[in-house]
Write a structure and sequence with these properties.
The structure is a single chain. This protein has helices at residues 18-23, 44-52, 55-60, 62-75, 89-93, 126-129, 131-143, 157-166, 174-182, 184-208, 225-249, 268-272, 287-297, 314-328, 347-359; strands spanning 81-82, 98-101, 105-108, 150-155, 212-217, 257-261, 278-280, 300-305, 333-337. It is α/β, with parallel strands linked by helices. It has one domain: Alpha-Beta Barrel (TIM Barrel). A 7-stranded parallel beta sheet has the order 1-4-5-6-7-8-9. Strands 2-3 form a two-stranded antiparallel sheet. β6, α12 and β7 form a beta-alpha-beta unit. The radius of gyration is 19 Å and the shape is globular. The chain binds coproporphyrinogen I. Coproporphyrinogen I (1CP) binds next to β3. Belongs to the uroporphyrinogen decarboxylase family. This is Uroporphyrinogen decarboxylase. InterPro entries: UROD/MetE-like_sf, Uroporphyrinogen_deCO2ase_HemE, Uroporphyrinogen_deCOase. Residues 32-41, 151-167 form the Uroporphyrinogen decarboxylase (URO-D) domain.
Length: 360
């Protein structure tokens, strides 16, 4: 049984809880909105901080991770904070080296080449290997002073698997797709390992102060429906069941769960047939169909403006956002983009989007 570093008690009272209300399907005064990658490079304040600080050093220094998490909260009318970290900290704690290359993104120095390489991975120890990430959550939850809820996150097992095999981002993911067909058993073994780690990591995030959780399956779009079920959704189901089971035993550990399977609109109905509370969709998914399925299975929706739409004029953003919100409906809805905000977005355009949604 996991002994938590922190005990999920003694935090400041919450002042703005509209995102938690929407997550529970309750009525809200305004539509809650937060933005994936809201603490990132589109903010000058973040870029300045990055000059002096290596990316993963920010993630492992609670004081810095907290400062970066709070940046957008102090600048823009957001209804939630998301802890500053990265999905690739998990493979790092399993012994894989990841370097942030300027202009390229994260790169693994030694990606897994054959199934034998799985034997070189270590099973991390939650209370020591994850201490900085959990302390960052604990410190940030306190430092938020109850302004808005704090969201924790992780990469989904399948998406982490693809990075560990490819060594970096890709458009075709031929190495990962080859693995699932050439080495199905070993692929399952690795996905199983990752799933167990993520269950413990997410539970520890709740204990440390995370009030909602999002799983990023950013590479869900490379699978067909059968493989999606076998190599992706079944593992995420396990994570959701694990967390819901823990919350049943200890109601203090209840936290709404968000799943984002990017480019997997093809599997939306099966995603709705899980224990996740909130389904994040990208901009390729027709909203009316998403709403119909969400209602059928009692889910809340999150999304989905194309982040590129923030390059348009303020007037266009207002029109587009208004139409989008009217199509989603104002209940059982959390507003966001359809993917992370792009680094060269003008923060004032984001402000237009946020203010429009709050005014509706
Ligand atoms: O140089 C820099 O400053 C790096 C830019 C950056 C940032 C700001 C990276 C590198 N990661 C992050 C932070 C981050 N990553 C957050 C922080 C909280 C917030 O949203 O504000 C989160 C939630 C992530 C999640 C993440 N990392 C995802 C899932 C979301 C998505 O975009 O699909 C993925 C795929 C990553 C990997 C990653 N980390 C960074 C980059 C550039 C990438 C993508 C690499 C690739 O596939 O090519």
């Amino acid at each position: 049984e996991y002994k938590s570093l922190h005990t999920n008690t003694g935090f400041p009272a919450i002042l703005n809880d509209r995102i938690l209300k929407a997550a529970h399907g309750e009525e809200v005064d305004k539509i809650p909105i937060w933005i994936m990658r809201q603490a990132g490079r589109y903010l000058e304040e973040f870029r300045n901080l990055r000059v002096e600080n290596e990316f993963f050093r920010i993630c492992t220094t609670p004081r810095l991770a907290c400062e970066v998490t709070l940046l957008p909260i102090n600048l823009l009318p957001l209804d939630a904070a998301i802890i500053f970290s990265d999905i690739l900290v998990i493979p790092q704690t399993m012994g894989m080296e990841v370097i942030m290359e300027k202009g390229k993104g994260p790169v693994f120095t030694h990606p897994l080449q054959t199934p034998e390489d799985i034997n070189l991975l270590k099973i991390p120890d939650i209370s020591t290997d994850y201490e900085p990430y959990l302390d960052a959550i604990f410190l940030t939850r306190h430092s938020l002073l109850g302004k808005v809820p704090l969201i924790g996150f992780c990469g989904g097992p399948f998406t982490l698997f693809t990075y560990m095999i490819e060594g970096q981002g890709s458009t075709v993911f031929t190495k990962s797709r080859r693995w699932i067909y050439q080495y199905p058993q070993e692929t399952h073994r690795l996905l199983d390992m990752l799933t167990n780690i993520l269950c413990d990591f997410l539970l520890a995030q709740i204990c440390s102060g995370a009030q909602m959780l999002q799983i990023f399956e950013s590479h869900a779009g490379i699978l067909g429906p059968d493989e999606f079920e076998e190599f992706l959704l079944s593992y995420n189901r396990k994570i959701a069941s694990f967390l819901k089971e823990k919350a049943k035993i200890n109601p203090g550990l209840e936290a709404p769960l968000i799943i984002f399977c990017k480019d997997a609109g093809y599997a939306l109905e099966s995603i709705c047939q899980t224990e996740f509370d909130i389904i994040q969709i990208d901009w390729t998914v027709p909203i009316p169909r998403a709403r119909e399925l969400a209602n059928r299975y009692g889910k809340v929706l999150q999304g989905n403006l194309d982040p590129a739409a923030l390059y348009a004029s303020g007037d266009f953003i207002r029109q587009k956002a208004t139409k989008m919100v009217e199509t989603f409906g104002k209940e059982k809805y959390i507003c966001n983009l359809g993917h992370g905000i792009y680094p060269d977005t003008d923060p004032e355009k984001l402000r237009v989007y946020l203010e429009t949604v709050h005014s509706l």
